[in-house]
Amino acid sequence: MVAFPAFLDTCVLYPAYLCDTLLRLAEASAYRPLWSADVFAELHRNLTKRGLPPDRVDRRLGQMSRSFPDALVTGYESLVDGMTNHPKDRHVLAAAVRADAEVIVTFNLSDFPEPALKPYDIAAIHPDDFLLDQLDLYPGVTMDVLRHQAASYRRAPNTVPEVLVLLQRTGVPRFAAEVRRHLGLPTW
């Protein structure tokens, strides 16, 4: 079975804990992550602008590339000008089209209006919805991923509820609440 292809926009790779959760789910074969050199350049620029040392950012991007050697989409540049979504995200749609992605995971849903996506049979999906879908399709895998994620950190957050607090702040509150429900915790 070929894993579900999902193009990850820069904005969902930027928050460290959300990125970690998404990539751990991909490692567990819940879906196939996709990105482009343009997404990596934007991510590098935004992380260094935030104050992260360039060598740490390079290490993070290198780890992502080594962990997912098939994720990098190439050969999409000639498609960019033909895209009709928001100009700053045309490279994202072009790469998603080139890779035959089924979804673009992004916080910037308004940059990907339905008329721009429809010809390519691609949907833009908020990371909260994407993670809820993963939890619905692969509840055991998703819960194991979160447990392993929490256990991998040397200091807080090193419990699933602590990770959920950070994921909620990152912009996936419904996913965090649903995982709390699965754990028998208050959903707030």
TrEMBL record:
<dbReference type="InterPro" id="IPR002716">
    <property type="entry name" value="PIN_dom"/>
</dbReference>
<feature type="domain" description="VapC50 C-terminal">
    <location>
        <begin position="127"/>
        <end position="181"/>
    </location>
</feature>
<dbReference type="GO" id="GO:0016787">
    <property type="term" value="F:hydrolase activity"/>
</dbReference>
<keyword id="KW-0540">Nuclease</keyword>
<dbReference type="GO" id="GO:0004518">
    <property type="term" value="F:nuclease activity"/>
</dbReference>
<feature type="domain" description="PIN">
    <location>
        <begin position="7"/>
        <end position="109"/>
    </location>
</feature>
<dbReference type="GO" id="GO:0046872">
    <property type="term" value="F:metal ion binding"/>
</dbReference>
<dbReference type="InterPro" id="IPR058652">
    <property type="entry name" value="VapC50_C"/>
</dbReference>
<protein>
    <submittedName>
        <fullName>Putative nucleic acid-binding protein</fullName>
    </submittedName>
</protein>
<dbReference type="InterPro" id="IPR029060">
    <property type="entry name" value="PIN-like_dom_sf"/>
</dbReference>
<keyword id="KW-0460">Magnesium</keyword>
<keyword id="KW-0378">Hydrolase</keyword>
<dbReference type="Pfam" id="PF13470">
    <property type="entry name" value="PIN_3"/>
</dbReference>
<keyword id="KW-0479">Metal-binding</keyword>
<dbReference type="Pfam" id="PF26343">
    <property type="entry name" value="VapC50_C"/>
</dbReference>
